[in-house]
Design brief:
The structure is a single chain. The chain folds into 2 domains: 109 residues, N-terminal domain of MutM-like DNA repair proteins (Alpha-Beta Barrel), CATH 3.20.190.10; 115 residues, Helicase, Ruva Protein, domain 3, CATH 1.10.8.50. It contains 5 helices and 10 strands; from the N terminus they run H-E-E-E-E-E-E-E-E-H-H-H-H-E-E. By secondary structure, the protein is an alpha+beta fold. The strands form 3 sheets. Strands 1-6-7-5 form a 4-stranded antiparallel sheet, with no helix packed on it. A 4-stranded antiparallel sheet has the order 2-3-4-8. Strands 9-10 form a two-stranded antiparallel sheet. The structure holds a DNA duplex.
Length: 259
DNA sequence: CCCTATGTTCCCAA
DNA sequence: CTTGGGAACATAGG
């Protein structure tokens, strides 16, 4: 479930708790998860986010990588000795315990020996140049929403924020990527940064079960304008929000003003 | 029973 | 090679 703002929220909360801390013990409670050797005794450096992925660099140079996929959650526990149901992985520190909870068991855990190369060409909060996006998208005839959500191109944007960003700039999710003008890419870059940063400030979007590291709901669901708003009036033009299927995903937009 | 789900990957067809 | 569609992964909830 988590997209960039949710993973960033976890990352910031983790930095306060486990940067520089030693892993006392781990427990893997799901045979689907990769068995990771020799984590005990290692110290975690500053946790980092890469798209929707969390990277925990260790003092021996290895990098523990966690992707939460659809239903993965991280929960910080200090006084609950019994893990919640669907707990798949536990890391014990002297100050508390980090639990990975994942009902659908899609989350992935892995270790690499060195820093992984960036997976995406663009990052909405760092290198997000309208001109480079315009050049890159210039020959793509796929829908702009599919382009925004493709993690090979752009890091961290998923279904909720793709819908919100496109609505903000009044562009249809079905528009061909190559149709966007440089001016439209400029608007997109600004809208993406605004929306994602605001969502980070709100600690993410809780429409069903997203929770932060301490089990708290986010607040950005109170600012959504199209996602899960089928049948409601558009805040820009009063048109009725529709839901269609695009790239296999429920897609919310205003057919009256998103052209 | 039906459908849906904030993600990714793989296979197949056009 | 590019794109789109569907299934798969596994589970909960409406």
């Amino acid at each position: 479930m988590p997209e960039l703002p949710e993973v960033e929220t976890l990352c910031r909360q983790l930095r306060e708790l486990i940067a520089g801390k030693k892993i006392l013990a781990i427990r893997i409670l799901d045979s689907k998860l990769e068995n990771i050797e020799n984590l005990e005794g290692r110290t975690i450096r500053l946790p980092c986010r890469a798209g929707k992925c969390l990277h925990f660099r260790l003092d021996d140079g290895r990098v523990l990588m966690l992707h939460l996929r659809m239903t993965g959650r991280l929960l910080w526990q200090t006084d609950q000795p019994v893990p919640a149901s669907h707990t798949r992985f536990i890391m014990q520190f002297d100050c508390g315990r980090l639990d990975l909870i994942d009902p659908r068991r899609f989350a992935t855990l892995g270790v690499q020996n060195e820093n992984p190369a960036p997976k995406a060409e663009f990052d909405p909060l760092n290198n997000f140049s309208p001109r480079l996006l315009w050049e890159r998208g210039g020959k793509k005839i796929l829908p702009i929403k599919s382009f925004l959500m493709d993690q090979r191109y752009i890091a961290g944007i998923g279904n909720i924020y793709a819908c919100e960003i496109l609505h903000e700039i009044s562009i249809s999710p079905r528009r061909k990527t190559s149709d966007l003008s440089l001016a439209e890419w400029r608007k997109l870059v600004i809208a993406a940064r605004d929306i994602l940063n605001k969502a980070i400030t709100c600690r993410g979007t809780t429409v069903s079960d997203w929770r932060d590291l301490f089990g708290q709901k986010g607040e950005y669901q109170n600012h959504l304008r199209v996602y899960a708003k089928e049948g409601e009036p558009c805040c820009h033009c009063g048109g009725i929000i529709e839901r269609v299927k695009l790239s296999g995903r429920g897609t919310y937009f205003c057919p009256a003003c998103q052209l």
